[in-house]
Write a structure and sequence with these properties.
With 329 residues, the chain is an alpha/beta fold. It is built from 13 helices and 16 strands. The protein has helices spanning 8-15, 52-60, 73-80, 97-100, 110-116, 140-149, 161-166, 180-185, 198-201, 204-208, 222-238, 271-281, 310-317, and strands at residues 2-7, 25-28, 30-32, 38-41, 67-70, 86-90, 105-107, 131-135, 152-155, 167-172, 191-194, 213-216, 259-266, 286-293, 297-304, 322-327. The strands form 5 sheets. It has a 5-stranded parallel β-sheet. The protein has a 4-stranded antiparallel β-sheet with strand order 14-15-13-16, with no helix packed on it. The chain is globular and about 75 Å long. Its cofactor is Mg(2+). It catalyses: O-phospho-L-serine + H2O = L-serine + phosphate; (R)-2-hydroxyglutarate + NAD(+) = 2-oxoglutarate + NADH + H(+); O-phospho-D-serine + H2O = D-serine + phosphate. It comes from Niabella ginsengisoli.
């Protein structure tokens, strides 16, 4: 349901692709003359009045657990009035302290709302929950690309122990001193982007054993720096490890109506047999499966076209020699 102080004529075409019915869009409406020129608005519409959202919701008299999502104080008033059970301050476009201070939860993206309420979503984990720690001199343009993608950016100076432990991405400026202690503490780290040559300053093999993908910019060019950021994004979004300096090459396209699982394991005999045994046990139909290996690790992408239960995930994680495991979507 859309409840807005904006105008229905503008809102309807925007939300049409979300399959929201026209009758479920409540907003202000224009008045037109016979030639189709706007001559005013409907001042009898409760949304054109002070406290209009509260008035409308009282009129609708909706039942059940009602949650409100918005970025304005008029959205919070629904919670204040007791007409909704919870209020989620939506901050992707704008964050107002007067709104976030009183919210039951702050949601930087709609994916976050779906995630915390255990509702189906296009991705398994909201990108705003993926922390990217930036160290050294990194161009603002590179950081902006990651921000636009939805990652939470924290500089090395701002990073505390909690944010380091949760970090999924590290972006390191060329020539920056690599803090191996910090990387060791980052138990959720999945990818390192280094805007220099990793052969000179990093030891990719040590990260391979931990299942951490490394992308570096061997020639240290501006074009190369942008390419590193795009590879990081492609890895997080699709699982692609093309042009990684320590993983076997694998370029993947996104697919629809499937779930994509990544399994990284030590390159020893029998692991793939165990993975397929678990999938067969749960009657999972595999749409596609990719396996790439080097002398240290096996990297498996599995696309399945059936809903799964938590027990399946638990068993895949529990396979001997597993290094990292995650669900993309």
């Amino acid at each position: 349901m859309i409840v807005s102080g904006g105008f229905k004529e503008f809102i309807t075409p925007v939300v049409k692709k979300l399959h929201i019915k026209k009758e479920n869009i409540y907003a202000n409406t224009f008045l037109f003359d016979n030639e189709g020129t706007i001559i005013g608005y409907d001042d009898k519409n409760p949304l054109s009045q002070e406290g209009g959202k509260v008035k409308l919701m009282k009129e609708l008299n909706l039942q059940g657990n009602l949650y409100g999502i918005g970025d304005g104080y008029s959205d919070f008033q629904l919670r204040e009035s007791g007409l909704i059970k919870k209020f989620f301050a939506y901050t992707e476009n704008i964050s107002r302290k007067s709104v976030t201070a009183k919210a039951d939860h702050i949601t930087p993206s709609f994916d976050e709302f779906l995630y915390i309420n255990k509702l189906p979503g296009a991705i398994s984990y909201p990108k705003n929950r993926i922390i990217c720690i930036v160290s050294g001199k990194v161009p603002a343009e590179s950081v902006e690309l990651l921000k636009q993608e939805g990652f939470t950016i924290i500089t090395e100076e701002e990073a505390d122990e909690k944010s380091v432990q949760k970090a999924g991405v590290m972006l390191i400026g060329a020539g920056a001193k690599i803090d191996e202690k910090m990387i060791k503490k980052a138990s959720r780290l999945k990818v390192i982007g280094y805007l220099g040559s990793s052969k000179e300053d990093l030891s990719p093999d040590s990260y391979t054993e931990k299942g951490i993908v490394v992308f570096d910019n061997i020639k240290s060019t501006e074009k190369g720096e942008v390419a590193i950021i795009k590879r990081i994004i492609d890895f997080i979004n699709r699982g692609s490890i093309n042009k990684s300096s320590n993983f076997p090459a694998l370029q993947l396209a996104a697919v629809n109506k499937t779930h994509r699982i990544i399994h990284i394991h030590k390159n020893v005999p029998g692991v793939m047999a165990q993975i397929n045994t678990v999938l067969a046990k749960h009657s999972i139909n595999i749409s596609s499966q990719y396996l790439m290996t080097n002398n240290k690790i096996g990297y498996v992408i599995i696309d399945i076209n059936k809903d799964y239960d938590k027990q399946l995930l638990k068993e895949l994680k529990g396979i001997e020699h597993t290094i990292q495991f995650r669900i993309l979507y």
